[in-house]
């Protein structure tokens, strides 16, 4: 069979340009130059409108500038192009949570988890939104999922401790606080000293012992 004489497809300079702007945006985001990063991501999607990752990263930079509604719009564009982009669903939940729309945030994290059930951060943030809605059992169940995936997830242990302390479940509060401090004594020893959730434990000898054990790391 003779070789095909059909020419190769022409090199797409436009797609190369979109990738270059996308990589530039990533670099600018890493050094905190979010406005410049947004400009780069915007140029990338102007050149290549179906560039889902660029829409997602544009949303991240907007979120970092507290432009949450615009961030949601960017995530929506990413998801419309690539519905299985679990990171975009997760990031959309973050922006919605920052807007105080916790139910919509939970719905986004549920989508992220459906696409990636091992997404510990999505489980954690889902728990935080549940807690803000005072759905405490749901919050604890979500944090338990996060911990099962990431046993050293100090923020999840600490969040559970706060809920239990507010509910006057002293033993559970102390057990979970100890786990948080064991994972990160410097951060959570200090946080336990000032967090109002533990106001009722300030005179408890076991609570004071936990703070004392963490004090060398603070």
From TrEMBL:
The keyword Repeat applies. Keywords: Repeat, TPR repeat. Pfam families: TPR_1 (PF00515), TPR_11 (PF13414), TPR_2 (PF07719). GO terms for biological process: receptor-mediated virion attachment to host cell. This is Tetratricopeptide repeat protein. InterPro entries: TPR-like_helical_dom_sf, TPR_2, TPR_rpt, Ycf3. TPR repeats lie at residues 18-51, 52-85, 86-119, 120-153. The lineage of its organism: Bacteria, Bacillati, Cyanobacteriota, Cyanophyceae, Pseudanabaenales. SMART domains: TPR. SUPFAM superfamilies: TPR-like (SSF48452). The keyword Repeat applies. Gene3D superfamilies: Tetratricopeptide repeat domain. It comes from the Bacteria. NCBIfam families: TPR_END_plus. One of its GO terms (cellular component) is cell outer membrane.
């Amino acid at each position: 069979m003779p070789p095909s004489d059909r020419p190769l497809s022409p090199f797409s300079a436009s797609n190369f340009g979109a990738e270059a702007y996308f990589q530039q945006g990533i670099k600018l985001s890493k050094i905190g130059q979010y406005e410049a990063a947004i400009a780069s991501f915007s140029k990338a999607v102007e050149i290549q409108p179906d560039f889902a990752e660029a829409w997602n990263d544009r949303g991240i930079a907007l979120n970092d500038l507290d432009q949450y509604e615009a961030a949601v719009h960017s995530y929506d564009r990413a998801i419309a192009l690539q519905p299985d982009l679990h990171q975009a669903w997760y990031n959309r939940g973050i922006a919605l949570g920052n807007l105080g729309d916790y139910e919509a945030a939970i719905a986004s994290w549920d989508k992220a988890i459906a696409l990636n059930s091992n997404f510990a951060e999505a489980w954690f943030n889902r728990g935080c939104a549940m807690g803000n809605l005072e759905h405490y059992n749901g919050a604890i169940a979500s944090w338990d999922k996060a911990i099962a995936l990431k046993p050293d997830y100090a923020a999840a242990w600490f969040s559970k401790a706060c809920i239990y302390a507010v509910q006057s479940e002293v033993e559970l509060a102390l057990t979970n606080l100890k786990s948080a401090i064991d994972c990160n004594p410097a951060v959570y020893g200090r946080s336990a000293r000032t967090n109002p959730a533990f106001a009722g434990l300030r005179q408890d000898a076991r609570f004071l012992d936990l703070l004392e054990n963490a004090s060398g790391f603070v």
